[in-house]
Amino acid sequence: MKIRFSDADEAFRAEVAAWLAEHLRGEFAALRFRGGPGDEHSFPEARKAWERKLAEGRWTCVGWAPEHGGRGLSISQQVIFHEEYARAGGPGRMGHIGEGLAGPTIAAFGTLDQKRRLLPGIVAGTEFWCQGYSEPGAGSDLANVRTRAVLEGDTWRISGQKVWTSLAHESDWCFVIARTEAGSVGHQGLSFLLVPMDQPGISVRPIEQLTGTSEFNEVFFDGALTDAANILGAPGDGWKIAMALLGFERGVSTLGQQMQFQNELDEIVRIARENGAARDPLLRQRIAEAWCGLRILRYNSLRMLSGPQDGSLRREAMIYKLNWASWHADLGKLAMDVLGPDAELLAGEPYELGRLQAMFLFSRSDTLYGGTNEIQRNIIAERALGMPREPRPRA
User: Fold this and answer.
1) Number of H helices and number of E strands within the chain?
2) What span, in angstroms and rounded, lies between the C-alpha atoms of 79 and 257?
3) Comparing 233 with 376, which gets the higher pLDDT?
4) Which of 36, 162, 326, 347 could form a disulfide with 219 if both were Cys (CB 3.0 to 4.6 A apart)?
5) Is the pLDDT assigned to residue 310 strictly greater than 60?
6) Within a 10 A sphere around the Cβ of 112, how many other Cβ atoms?
7) Collapsed DSSP state (helix, strand, coil) of residue 224
8) What is the C-alpha to C-alpha distance for residues 70 and 275, in angstroms, rounded to an integer?
9) pLDDT per residue over 86-115, tens digit each?
């Protein structure tokens, strides 16, 4: 595990910080610290323009191989980029799903034609992706996917429903796990399809959340079409590719996520000092525990990133989701307790939440999306520790 950076890496850090300081102003000044989890509905068009600005500076897809349009940066430099981006208040990335999930998966499993057609738009910040995994009856358990796709000539016809689809209403493409083998059950018979969103067979409906926002959506596929060439891997490879994609999700962007957490913790500490909450010994202890927990997240991530970057999940990666989700949910509670009575007051009408209020409400979902804490514990037990599978009811 590498926890120190070379002189060359620190020079690169200065380059990243200087570029962000120069460009996160003017038309983009209002985007600083906006558009993250719980705030993803904010400034979508301006954040898309910011993606194009990043692309002009070659700051998109920095870890991708040069042949795919990236910079091919080392792990150390990727860590530095994500940390400095969050430290500077870089806005939530509209291209995150494409850059962090779809792109690496296409690069790993796609054909030359798929890479040629689909990767440049991600690099350029002009094409955006969403994820079609969860369904009303198949959230954390993809083995229960019921969305179906049938090959008709040179076209896949897709029918079904996906749910909790972040920014589907802003996306150009969706990668969809669908059942392509009639009569198949469980992990068998699933395929990984790449589907254009702008077509009559797809409708997107917003889901309003506790925060009053609706960056999540339901997506309905009513005979939606995609070319036969838009399948990643072979029919039936969907489960294998879906699992590899989740490995990419545990990549270097986790360090940027942690810097966003640090920004939130810094805000909590600032308020505690200003309103006197820092004099409460119990709150001081909880703040100290939050600080320690965040350092543990960082060290485990660096250990996790010392392994292969091919989408495979080491044991260190398998504990990460459970760890950060639980930590962040506790941070939300700490924020409300530090705010005290102010936590109950809105900044304005009709439902104008403060930054920490929105964080608290959104963090309630951290232990659910991306795999519930219960599912994460099963993954750790069964895949990391080799324990017997959880008993399942007979059909």
Assistant:
1) 13, 8
2) 11
3) 233
4) 162
5) no
6) 7
7) strand
8) 46
9) 899 999 999 999 999 999 999 999 999 999
**Cα–Cα dist 101/164, whole Å:** 16
| Domains of the chain with CATH codes | 7-94 (1.10.540.10), 129-237 (2.40.110.10), 250-384 (1.20.140.10)
CA atoms within 13 A on the CB side of 229: 8
**d(Cα 126, Cα 120) in Å, to the nearest integer?**
9
Tens-digit pLDDT profile for residues 258-298: 888 998 999 999 999 999 999 999 999 999 999 999 999 98
Query: Which residue matches tokens 């993606």?
Result: 51
Of 142, 361, 373, 138, nearest in space to 244 by CA:
142
Specify the higher pLDDT residue, 259 or 240. 240
State how far the Cα of 182 lies from the Cα of 272, in Å rounded to an integer. 58
Q: Residue 52: what residue type?
A: R
Q: Measured between alpha carbons, how far is 69 from 106 in angstroms, rounded to an integer?
A: 13
Q: How far apart are CA 75 and CA 22, in angstroms?
A: 25
Amino acid letter, 266? D
**What is d(CA 285, CA 276) in angstroms, rounded to the nearest whole number?**
14
Long-range Cβ contacts of 300-309 (<8 Å, 24+ apart): 301/254, 301/255, 301/258, 302/1, 302/2, 302/3, 302/79, 302/255, 303/1, 304/250, 304/254, 305/75, 305/79, 305/251, 305/252, 305/255, 306/1, 306/2, 306/75, 309/63, 309/75, 309/251
The answer to whether 312 touches 13, Cβ cutoff 8 Å, is: no
pTM: 0.87
Residues pairing with 158 in the sheet: 149, 224
Catalytic (active site) residue 374: no
**Is the pLDDT assigned to residue 38 strictly greater than 80?**
no
Can you spell out the DSSP letters for 15-48? HHHHHHHHHSSGGGGGGTT-SSTT-TTS-HHHHH
- Give dist(CA 2, CA 302) in Å, integer: 7
Q: What are phi and psi of 222, to 5 degrees?
A: -115, 75
Cα 33 to chain centroid, rounded: 17
**Dist CA 275 CA 345 (whole Å):** 15
pLDDT at 312: 59
Which listed residue (249, 316, 352, 390) is catalytic?
A: 249
